UniProtKB/TrEMBL annotation:
Lineage: Bacteria, Bacillati, Actinomycetota, Actinomycetes, Mycobacteriales
Pfam family, one: MFS_1
InterPro entries: MFS, MFS_dom, MFS_trans_sf, Tet-R_TetA/multi-R_MdtG-like, YfmO-like
Lipid bilayer topology: Multi-pass membrane protein
UniProt domain Major facilitator superfamily (MFS) profile: residue ranges: 7-378
Localization annotation: Cell membrane
Keyword Transmembrane: yes
The protein's name in its UniProt record: MFS transporter
Superkingdom of the organism of origin: Bacteria
Coiled-coil features, chain-numbered ranges: none
Main location: membrane
CDD domains (UniProt xref): MFS_YfmO_like
Gene Ontology MF terms in the entry: transmembrane transporter activity
SUPFAM superfamilies given in the database record: MFS general substrate transporter
């Protein structure tokens, strides 16, 4: 799995830096609120604008990539991230940062969906191995992001934004030189193809599950720093532990559980465990030790879920992988967009316990949706050559019907 072409490693490195952006702002949420006299719900919009734009923009990634080629799409996405992160660091108001984070989200959408499809299509070995490699990059980026954010944020809340901009500039150069020119797709993807793909009940069910799961995930990510009430460096270390746990289970534990018990069964049990953990956080919100411990433990469940649900998406429907990725990402980032803002509102209006209860309920509902979708996912553990054959046949039929 680890013997891959240089192009795959180039995209994986850029993915690490891209995913750093998710957790990088976590340690500086409270410092930003204190420095700019903002409320938790206002600061949480840094996540909401980022995720909302990313989710909607996922619908255009396939259309853009199929017309100008994956490499150009990746490079454009990286340039936009560099601009968005740098301009956010130069802002003097919360809403200014929120706006530039939205631009950052557009760049991330172009990059992330294309990166996943590029790694899956270019990597040696099976789809499962390629996704593990992608999730390893995701886990490493998420782990390092809070640590870098905490270190730079202890100097200034602007530091993490400028740090991402500089690292993305390096990723831009690496991708430009190591990733070979990629041709445009034989058939251009339509803007409605991702939405059309959701007619497949398996993909739709997994997408809704991911939306609800991400509701709990981003409640933990965006709201927990406020009841923790620690400095940027301390929060960065806690979420660094969370990211390491996530990276470990996504690469090492998830494949073993999948092989022994089956993909869907592991996902359902994992979602139930994550929901129970959020309930513990709801009960123990006033105890910093409980919250910090639960954040790290949550990484174990999130790592398993990220790897297996991403692989399930790639196999859930007989559509092109780029289209499936865009459709799934459109739904899942919807949960990531709403959760931070709603958690801030609930915490301000009622109490700090309620956001975690709502997050736990959303993840529990996600487990129920996946259980109901299970009859449409019986094929996800089939040998990959059979799944690829079905996908190729479906793609051929779609091309023939459009011609």
């Amino acid at each position: 799995m680890w013997r891959q072409p240089k192009a795959v490693w180039a995209v994986a490195f850029a993915s690490v830096v891209a995913f750093m952006g998710i957790g990088l702002v976590d340690p500086i949420l409270k410092p930003i609120a204190d420095s700019l006299h903002a409320t938790p719900s206002q600061v949480s919009l840094l996540f909401t604008s980022y995720m909302a734009v990313m989710g909607v923009a996922m619908l255009i990634t396939g259309a853009v990539s199929s017309r100008i080629g994956p490499k150009r799409t990746l490079l454009i996405g990286l340039v936009i991230i560099i601009a968005g992160a740098g301009l956010a660091g130069m802002s003097d108001s919360v809403m200014g940062i929120v706006g530039w984070r939205a631009l950052w989200g557009l760049g991330n959408a172009l990059f992330i969906a294309t990166a996943l499809a590029t790694i899956v299509n270019s990597a040696r070995g099976s789809v499962a191995q390629a996704i593990i490699l992608y999730e390893a990059a995701l886990g490493l980026g998420i782990a390092v992001g809070p640590l870098v954010g905490g270190v730079l944020g202890s100097i200034s809340w602007r530091g993490p934004f400028f740090g991402v901009s500089a690292l993305m500039a390096i990723a831009l150069v690496v991708t430009a030189f190591l990733l070979p020119a990629t041709p445009r797709a034989a058939k251009a993807t339509s803007l409605v193809d991702p939405l059309r793909a959701l007619k497949h009940r398996g993909l739709l069910g997994v997408g809704i599950t991911a939306l609800l799961y991400n509701f709990g995930f981003f409640t933990l990510l965006a709201f927990t720093p406020f009841p923790l009430d620690m400095n940027a460096h301390q929060i960065g270390l806690i979420f660094f532990g969370w990211g390491l746990a996530l990276a470990f289970t996504s690469v090492v534990v998830a494949p073993q559980l999948q092989h022994r018990f089956g993909t869907v069964r592991v996902l359902i049990l994992n979602l139930l465990a994550f929901s129970a953990l959020l309930a513990v956080m709801a009960i123990g919100t006033d105890h910093k030790t409980v919250l910090a411990t639960c954040v790290v433990v949550a990484g174990l469940f999130i790592g398993v879920n990220n790897t297996l649900i991403t692989e399930t998406v790639m196999k859930a429907a007989p559509v092109e992988r780029g289209v499936a990725s865009a459709a799934y990402s459109f739904l899942r980032f919807g949960g990531g967009a709403v959760a931070p803002w709603l958690a801030g509102i609930l915490g301000e209006t009622f109490n700090a316990h309620l956001p975690f209860w709502v997050g736990a309920a959303a993840v529990l509902l996600g487990a129920g949706v996946l259980l109901a979708t299970r009859p449409h996912l019986t094929h996800v553990d089939d040998p990959e050559d059979e799944i690829d054959e079905l996908t190729d046949e479906a793609t051929a039929v779609a091309v023939g019907s459009d011609s």
